[in-house]
Design goal:
about 500 residues, alpha/beta, six-stranded mixed β-sheet, 22 strands, about 40% helix, globular
Amino acid sequence: MTTTPSQSIELPATRQLIDGEWSDAPVDLPTELENPNTGEVVARMKATADADVERVAAAAARVHETGEWLNVPAEQRAAILESVADALDAAAPRIAALESFGSAAVIGTTAMLATVINGGSFRLAAGLLRQGRLMHRVDVELSQSDPKAQAEVHRLPWGPSLSLVPWNAPAPQGCHKIANSLAVGAPTILKPSEWAPYGTTVMAEVVSAALDAAGAPKGTFQVVQGNSHVGGMLVKDARIRAISLTGGLAAGRAIAAVAAEDFKATQLELGGNNPVVVLDDADLDFAANGIVELMTQLNGQWCRALGRLIVQGNIYDDLMAKVMDRLAQVRLGDSLSPDSDMGPMVHSGHLAMLRGRIEEYVSQGGVTHSSTPLPDLAGNFLAPTLITGVTSEAAQEEMFGPVATVHQVSDDAEAVRVANGTPFGLEGYVFAGNEERGLAVARQVRAGGVKVNGSTMLSLNLMAPRPAWGLSGLGVEGTTETFDFFTNSRVVGVENFSAAGLKAVFG
């Protein structure tokens, strides 16, 4: 039998970092982890023990209370973060291969993410430190007779932070969160997804080694492993003051409810059932390529993927034909093969869930459309599938896979109505020949971001926020927004004004 590329990779142990010491996570969980490309069982899911979780929280609280990390000058912290970035750059090929194995995203995608985002996140956070984002001054000229009233606004960490990352791109998302948490001076705890711990664990080992080499205090950065039980222990712990999650709606609701008890800061990105609107003047070849890209990037297993395809009626048949033709050319195969355009689903359980959802839509009168050949592999493969004949009212929940419903509309107003017809609002897409028309529709779509004639994984602008509306989340991610999230403000100054000065300002 021929060995596939994914069968040749050496997998690391699932390790934990507690108060400066690395060890194997000791608790066996019931779930077996698979090679998604072959279906073979490769490991058992592991978790950190309850007693070790307590040690993690205690160490983070100690570092926060002593100020050992916070008191490192901002310029010095920036230099340390830049050294972390250099170390991550060197480790990018290994992390990318492990991410491709664990998440089943193709190696071309994980290599791009590892090269651009991992080290890049630490450099961006270091840049914000060097720009002085942790402190600015507010000056007000009250009157000619009064001096200026000056106040200093200091950004300080809420306290120890917890970052919870999903399985679809765990190392890049982990880097984004922990880089900003460390930058602001917060003791930082990372919990990788229990479904794909490999690349994130190696990434964390690289971060830890670079921090150690720079003399960062023990307990500044820690790693726990496991499922929602482990994450839940830390979410409930009063010593944890900020929680950043990228995950699902159920987890977000649970965290928000617990965090409300002692008013922890929360940043929750929870996915969405994203609309793609194709207007009748769109370039159909271009739109078809974009639709396929939005179905196959990260194997359709990402929060900003296509969920609902909304097409104006007079182009419907031509567009569907072009999409099917383009899907027929997609090379579905081993995620670590450079020849693959798309890999399998992350786990057989996830594949079974998606098949069940498809069957549910078919039972409601839906018709499936797919044309991508399946590979001769025993893994968790699913051909990208469009489903017609389902009402927009029935297509409310995201699939989190390469499956989308299709809805015909008559005009721009109906397209907007259908696009806004779910309680989610993460991302939207509009394809139009006339950009001004496309922008006019995009401005009416209720989502955190709406791209016109675009379908890449990249943000419209690196410095633009990445908000979420409705059930898609709480709080805002972004280059500066995530940095700011881990902080609260303290305003300091000398009160130095008179009643006359106040009257001059307020009348």
